[in-house]
Amino acid sequence: MRTILRFVSRNLTFMILGAMIAGLFNSYFGSGIQFNIGVCAAASFLMIYPMFINLKMGDVAEARNFKGAVSLSLFLNFIISPALGFFLGKIFFPEQPFMALGLLLISLIPTSGMSATWTERTKGNLKVALSIIAVSLLVVIVLLPIALPLLAGNVLTVTPAFIFLRILMVIIVPLVLGDITRRIIISRKGLDYYKKSKPTFLGLSSLGLLFVLFLIMSLKTNRMLLENPLLVLKGLLPLAIYYIAMFGSSTFLSRKMPYPVSVAVTYGTSVRYLALALGIAVPLLGEGEGSSLVVFIVALAFFVQVPLSSFYSSFRQRKVVIK
């Protein structure tokens, strides 16, 4: 089982593509499925909960040791990123507001555990990365119910209280349960067992993500996506601009920091928590063409985020070797 989960985690980008294609084919050539909020919410929970087992909220306390890096990450995550997502949506999707909403949602949901993985792989400061992740998650719980309706405008008709209830379901509850689970595992099995189990939790989260994508892409309303392949190209261009701008601006603004800290800041602001964006979009928007377009943009972001993260890792390490 662990071998299978590791395989899923290491080949996630290709498996995401496979899950999306399988879902679309089921929608177009098969019977498709009707939207079920209960099933989608449960799948979203199973996608997010294992990821939170790997996250220690105690890392928030570490932030006081890295005030400059964490402050810069908050500026990039909650000012630069939403502004960039908002204006790119206006420019590229003036007549498709739900695609703009998908891009906005990506820009508002901050970093994930994957940023820690990339930071470690690029020889960055892991403690800084973990502090950025923990602080950003706490901020988004408060900020998202206010910022999302304000920036989305008439496209989103729900109230901040409604959004907070969804955040409670997809962030706060899994976060608390994940922390409790981690403590129980450590107390009963020991710290070494917990560390060895981390890839398993990541794999379970990846499986949940694949199931959510298949489920959403299988909706009958998604037939339009196969009938309009230009939507893929239309979605990829602003996503590429967004990620290049985030990697570039974070690298530039952190250039005077030590290399390991600079790497942590860049990954802590450029790698978005796409699984969480899906987890919020599904119960928030329900069924319909608009929901499909939002999910479609978030899913496409995986195919930009992962290759650029890999390229950036090679680029930064090569620059260090040259120096």
Give a quick precis of the structure.
By secondary structure, this protein is mostly helical.
- How would you characterize the largest beta sheet? none
Distinct helical segment count: 15
Number of strands: 0
Determine the fraction of residues in helical runs and give it as a percent range. Answer: over 70%
Mean pLDDT: 83
Structural class: mainly alpha
CATH topology: Na+/H+ antiporter like fold
Q: How much is the radius of gyration in Å?
A: 19 Å
Q: Name the shape in a single word.
A: globular
CATH architecture: Up-down Bundle
N-to-C series of helices and strands: HHHHHHHHHHHHHHH
Number of domains: 1
Tell me the strand percentage band. under 5%
Task: Write down the CATH class.
Answer: Mainly Alpha
SSE layout and pairings?
Layout: H1 2-10, H2 12-28, H3 37-53, H4 59-62, H5 67-92, H6 97-108, H7 113-121, H8 126-152, H9 160-189, H10 191-217, H11 223-227, H12 230-253, H13 259-270, H14 274-285, H15 289-322
Helix pairs in contact: 1-10, 2-10, 2-15, 3-9, 3-10, 3-14, 5-6, 5-8, 5-12, 5-13, 6-8, 6-15, 7-8, 7-13, 8-9, 8-13, 9-10, 9-14, 12-13, 12-15, 13-15, 14-15
Summarize the structure in words.
The chain is an all-alpha fold and 323 residues long. 82% of the residues lie in helices and 0% in strands. The chain is built from 15 helices and no strands. The longest helix has 34 residues, at 289-322. The chain is globular and about 50 Å long.
